[in-house]
């Protein structure tokens, strides 16, 4: 972290502008046949004194099925920090094309409750550029603190893949990591996702990536239909775990296959009790109930 230079921004960047800039950068790279180098920018972007919008928080909680309350859900904090993470990946010295990035995994550690009334300092950076059998991947790290304090309340690591992009000097794994076959369990929930799910989540998260908004905008970027945001799906699964998780927990999700809209998604949550019968861990998995194909899976666990 000491090797990173901090850039203080006056306010949260507008995602709409960042997507426009990313499209322009992609066009320049196609015309010029260039990329932004082979190293990640050694900069941390930070915005201080960020406050959640109460109306937006309420709409978010309603959309994903979270109980209304004053505590910010972990997925809402991810959405709050996402524009700052995007601003780092929109830098001219960022070596990978931002548009078309695939979200592979997300890991969050929330150390305590964050109230909507709190002013927050939010930081984001990119690190750990490495090969993948189908391209190049990296980690985007976002951190949230109470304004003016150093104690870390929330930390998220999102791993993204630039599929088909192979940077010189970065080796790729020789073979894919094998996973055990997925055996469909009995579902504990069945979600009905309408064609407008992407637009609804974009309205509360600010993530208006065209692949999520409509069939037309998704097809323009090579998708057959629009697809649900990965963090909408993961956050809804977290909401289904419920209040049993408390205010301090770790949360992980791995994305396997996109959910094209409209869709039905089956979900199973398996809860493990710890010593004394207290909640210790919940594992969840979601799949297509027709094909049996797994969409995503993850865990929510109590912090030690």
Automatic annotation (TrEMBL):
Gene3D superfamilies on file: Hotdog Thioesterase
* UniProt family annotation: Belongs to the enoyl-CoA hydratase/isomerase family.
According to its UniProt entry, the protein's GO biological process terms are:
fatty acid biosynthetic process
Q: Which Pfam families match?
A: MaoC_dehydratas (PF01575)
**Domain MaoC-like residues, every copy:** 195-273
Q: Which GO terms describe its cellular component?
A: fatty acid synthase complex
Q: Which superkingdom is the protein from? A: Bacteria
Q: Offer an example of a GO molecular function term for this protein.
A: fatty acid synthase activity
Put simply, this protein is called MaoC dehydratase-like protein
Lineage per the UniProt record = Bacteria, Bacillati, Actinomycetota, Actinomycetes, Micrococcales
């Amino acid at each position: 972290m000491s090797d990173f230079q901090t850039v203080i921004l006056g306010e949260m960047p507008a995602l709409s502008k960042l997507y426009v800039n990313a499209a322009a950068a992609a066009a320049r790279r196609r015309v010029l046949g260039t990329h932004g180098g082979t190293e990640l920018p050694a900069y941390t972007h930070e915005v201080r004194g960020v406050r959640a919008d109460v109306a937006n928080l309420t709409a978010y909680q309603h959309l994903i099925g979270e109980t209304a309350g004053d505590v910010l859900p972990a997925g809402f904090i991810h959405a709050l920090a996402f524009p700052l993470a995007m601003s780092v990946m929109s830098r001219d010295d960022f070596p990978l094309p931002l548009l078309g990035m695939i979200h592979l995994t997300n890991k969050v550690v929330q150390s305590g409750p964050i109230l909507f009334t709190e002013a927050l300092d939010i930081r984001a950076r990119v690190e750990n550029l490495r090969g993948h059998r189908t391209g190049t991947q990296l980690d985007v790290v976002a951190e949230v603190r109470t304004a003016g304090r150093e104690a870390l309340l929330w930390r998220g690591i999102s791993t993204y893949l630039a599929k088909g992009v192979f940077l010189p000097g970065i080796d790729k794994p020789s073979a894919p990591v094998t996973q055990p076959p997925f055996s469909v369990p009995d579902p504990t929930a069945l979600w009905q996702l309408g064609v407008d799910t992407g637009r609804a989540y974009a309205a509360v998260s600010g993530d208006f990536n065209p692949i999520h908004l409509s069939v037309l905008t998704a097809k323009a970027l090579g998708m057959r239909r629009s697809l649900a945001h990965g963090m909408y799906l993961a956050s809804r699964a977290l909401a289904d775990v419920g209040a049993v998780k408390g205010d301090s927990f770790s949360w992980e999700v791995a994305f396997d296959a996109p959910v094209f809209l409209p869709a039905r998604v089956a979900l199973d949550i398996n809860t493990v009790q710890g010593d004394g019968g207290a909640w210790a861990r919940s594992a969840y998995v979601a799949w297509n109930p027709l094909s049996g194909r797994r969409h995503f899976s993850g865990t929510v666990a109590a912090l030690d």
